[in-house]
């Protein structure tokens, strides 16, 4: 009976994934070292936060995260959109209840997708770290061999 209620609700409101999963998700960003600036691009309004932090983003947004901190090389992570099992189930529910309208709503809002990677975890490298590493010293030839 509960399933029938959910399916009827999906049919009335449009896309099943839009109803069951929502059109936004929370994206977490952390870095080593912590306290780095994370610039999240691709949102309606670009956002900046200090790691560790989290932002709410639309599921259909094309997001990139740039993490930077004084003395470290900045790193940019481009997030991709994937359809997890829960999103696929919600989208498939449209076949039973939401029809083409529900599928269109879910496709337009990205409700069936999740951003990956989430959480975004970045390990910053010290600026010029490769220049400071000592070069390996060749072993001296041995006499008598």
Report what the structure shows.
This protein has 145 residues and is an alpha+beta fold. Helix content is 32%, strand content 30%. It contains 4 helices and 9 strands, in the order H-H-E-E-E-E-E-E-E-H-E-E-H. It has helices at residues 2-13, 16-21, 85-109, 129-132, and strands at 24-32, 37-41, 47-50, 53-58, 64-68, 75-78, 80-82, 114-116, 120-123. It has a 4-stranded antiparallel β-sheet with strand order 3-2-5-6, with no helix packed on it. Helix 1 packs parallel to helix 3 (85-109). Mean pLDDT is 74; it is low at 2-19, 86-94 and 97-101.
Structure summary:
By secondary structure, this protein is an alpha+beta fold.
How many helical stretches? 4
Class from secondary-structure proportions:
alpha+beta
Fraction of residues in H or I helices: 25-40%
How is the main sheet built? Answer: 4 strands, antiparallel
Gap between N and C termini = 87 Å
Report the strand count: 9
Shape: elongated
Question: Would you identify the regions where 5 or more consecutive residues have pLDDT less than 50?
Answer: 2-19, 86-94, 97-101
Strand order of the largest sheet: 3-2-5-6
What share of the residues does DSSP label as strand, in percent?
25-35%
Overall pLDDT level: 74
**What's the helix-strand series?**
HHEEEEEEEHEEH
| Rg | 23 Å
């Amino acid at each position: 009976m509960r399933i029938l209620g959910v399916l009827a609700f999906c049919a009335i409101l449009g896309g099943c994934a839009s109803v069951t999963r929502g059109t936004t998700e929370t994206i977490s960003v952390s870095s080593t070292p912590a306290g780095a600036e994370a610039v999240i691009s691709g949102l309606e309004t670009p956002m900046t936060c200090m790691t560790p932090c989290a932002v709410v983003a639309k599921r259909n947004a094309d997001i990139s995260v740039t993490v930077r901190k004084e003395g470290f090389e900045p790193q940019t992570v481009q997030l991709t959109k994937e359809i997890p099992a829960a999103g696929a189930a919600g989208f498939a529910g449209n076949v039973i209840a939401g029809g083409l309208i529900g599928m269109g709503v879910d496709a337009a809002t990205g409700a069936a997708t999740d951003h990956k990677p989430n959480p975004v975890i970045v390990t910053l490298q010290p600026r010029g770290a490769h220049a400071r590493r000592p070069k390996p010293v060749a072993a001296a030839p041995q006499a008598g061999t």
